[in-house]
Amino acid sequence: MTEILPLPTGAELRVTNAPSPLAVVCINGGQGGLVEGTWSASLEWLVEQLAPSRPTIRFSEVRYRIKSWRKLDWCIEDAQAAVEQTGGARTLLVGFSMGGAVGIGATDTPTVEGLVGLAPWIPDRMPVESLVGRRFDVIHGSLDRWLPGIPGVSTASSRRGFDRVQALGVPGSYTLIRGAVHPIALRRPSGAPFPFPRARRWAELLGERIDAFARSTTV
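-> structure tokens emitted (219 positions)
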């Protein structure tokens, strides 16, 4: 069961599976330009792979009002509203690219127990203290990097952010996927997501983190 719900901020939420005490909220990336939010092909593909075999977990995906790091505060508000609308007593955030920074900003929402950053953008000046008392895991493609005209996040950047979080005593892990680039999937002209060659490894590792979250009282 998949349904699209409006959020009070003006963003939208796509939910998969029935309401549950366990929730996974997936947060999209973004860009510099002030453009209208879209659904993430990468997150959509991952939810399609993972949600059917996990019917006791409610998955949701956020479509921002404006998907831009110049409106990061708006994106954080959208993510916080998504957590509340999804309604889990326990929530795991999954942030792709800019969604890593948005997820850090949204972790102070009371039900959030952890954040999984997929190729996460973590600005060097961004405070990360909101992750104290939670868990932070990073999964990143070894070939990811920024190139002219091609968005990306370097592994050196995400590692610096992860190390800053680790210095606060936050538990977590950092995993590289050899041969993987920044996108996990792109959208076909038909609208369906098209997975990149290492996409199934992304799904496998994310599935492991979601299952660990579901099994434990803390992530």
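The beta strands are 2-6, 12-16, 22-27, 57-63, 90-96, 112-118, 135-141, 172-177, 185-187, 193-195.
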